[in-house]
Specification:
Helix content is about 85%, strand content about 0%. By secondary structure, it is mainly alpha-helical. This is DUF2312 domain-containing protein. It holds the Pfam family GapR_DNA-bd.
Length: about 35
């Protein structure tokens, strides 16, 4: 059971990182004039 919890927490952290990268990418695109 502990392995599942650790894996879940790892995936949550990765998901947070991906979401942050998406925000940065959209901000970069907007900064270049794309809406």
């Amino acid at each position: 059971m502990r392995q599942f919890i650790e894996r879940f927490e790892t995936l949550e952290a990765e998901k947070k990182d991906v979401t942050e990268q998406q925000k940065e990418l959209m901000a970069e695109a907007k900064g270049r004039g794309y809406d």
